[in-house]
Amino acid sequence: MSKLVALLLYGEFHWGFSVRFPLASMSESFPEPPPTTLVGALARGLAEAGLLSRTELYLPGKSKELAVYSNAASIINSVKVATFCYEISNKSMPVPYADPLRLLRTLFIKENNRARREMWFGFAKSGRTYAPATKFKLLYILDIDKLSEICGSKVSTRDLVRACFSIPCIGSKEGIVSIYRVECSSNVRTYSSHAETVRTQFYVPIDAVSIDTVRGDYVIVSLPYPVLEWYQVRASNINVVVASSLRDFLVPCRQGVFIEPTYVEFYPSKESTVYKCIMDSEHVTIAWSRP
Hints:
Layout (H helix, E strand, L loop, with lengths): L3 E10 L2 E2 L17 H14 L8 E4 L5 E4 L9 E8 L8 E10 L16 E10 L4 E9 H8 L5 H9 L11 E9 L2 E4 L6 E3 L3 E2 L13 E6 L13 H8 E6 L1 E3 L3 E3 L2 E3 L5 E7 L4 E7 L2
Antiparallel strand pairs: 1-8, 1-9, 2-7, 3-4, 5-8, 6-7, 10-18, 11-17, 12-14, 13-14, 15-16, 18-19
Helix pairs in contact: 1-3
């Protein structure tokens, strides 16, 4: 039986972050960093700590020809849970925002329309989530045996803590973060019984929740879920990959102009796995969809 390890990271944004769809440089940002981004941040930390290769991977794609993938693709099967929440605070609240930009579009206009000056310029939005000095928590549950196989040597909990402190950013490289505390626990238990409620600040897949039992304020947000194809560099069928990777998540918060984090309580669905992690400062329970 594989050994599970839980990592609870406490961090702080410098100004916020920007996470958009692949190749969509002009679009809104997700209000919370999705699981795909969290897996990428962990892979970056593992690489910075010397546990994972920094280079891209060459793996057979669906056409059985070698394709290029981010190094994050190698760890997705060892990551059982990757989730995020803002810490509740009366000092700062995240604000989703999109800057309107005036773009020169002459490069993309058909030749027979280039004389029409009214088509030379257009407007687009550049999304980001402003969260200056906003504190957050990340929760990872990992299969450390699988991760050790991927890294080519035995990975210890000390190695994982060092990798977590090596995470420099979330989302784009400008989304700088400071990780100021990391808790690691090997005391992780899984349950198939769904008779107990889960109380959490972290977002969870909607299919892991008995939606009629939810108590508390929440919103439902479509976020990309980690699959191998998501991390392919220059995928030819990127629209198909994006569409097939999106899943609905229940995010505990009150969301208007600001994002105000809250707790929710619910009964897990029969399709979920419940993880109970005993950490140094708190006990964390999370329900997650089975692969």
